[in-house]
Design a protein that fits this description.
Number of helices: 5
Structural class: alpha/beta
Oligomer: single chain
CATH architecture: 2-Layer Sandwich
Radius of gyration: 15 Å
CATH class: Alpha Beta
Order of helices and strands: HEHEHEEEEHH
Shape: globular
Strand content: 15-25%
Number of domains: 1
Strand order of the largest sheet: 3-4-2-1-6-5
């Protein structure tokens, strides 16, 4: 794993656990998860971190409030579908995308040994990239397949 990605993960998880989230209820996904499992394309630059978190309604409302207060322009990709289960925050200087876990999404059983958070499988990430269908997602899918095969 790239050292800068490991550092981003550690800092982000530290901040989320400080907010009261348990590591077993946090799943890292996206490019940092691909790096953990060893299939991140070598030329892929990670500019943010993505999490899926199991949380109750009160915690979710707090996250939405934090997002509204911050009002930071984090370069949100307007090609994301309008996702009511997603917030964009800057945590410890890191652009952070957080999705609220929904029951129809499988929870990973892969655990990152250093942070204790769960790691999305390649299959999870492929499903998400297919669902979003942005040009960069198709580029990522091709690169992931190349690295796996």
């Amino acid at each position: 794993m790239k050292p800068e990605n490991r550092n981003t993960l550690k800092k982000s998880v530290e901040a989320l656990t400080t907010l009261g989230f348990k590591p077993e209820n946090i799943m890292v996904t996206g490019s940092i998860a691909l790096d953990i499992v060893g299939v991140l394309p070598p030329n892929r630059w990670t500019h943010d971190i993505d999490f899926i978190i199991k949380m109750d309604d009160k915690s979710w409302h707090c996250m939405k409030l934090l997002e509204a207060i911050e009002k930071a322009d984090m370069g949100k990709d307007n090609k994301y579908p309008d996702d009511k289960n997603m917030v964009f925050l800057k945590i410890k200087g890191i652009n952070t995308n957080i999705w609220r876990h929904t029951p129809n999404f499988d929870w990973s059983t892969i655990k990152d040994t250093e942070t204790g958070v769960m790691v999305a499988t390649v299959s999870h990430i492929i499903q998400a990239k297919k669902a979003y269908g942005r040009p960069k997602d198709y580029e990522d899918l091709a690169a992931i397949c190349k690295n796996i095969l």
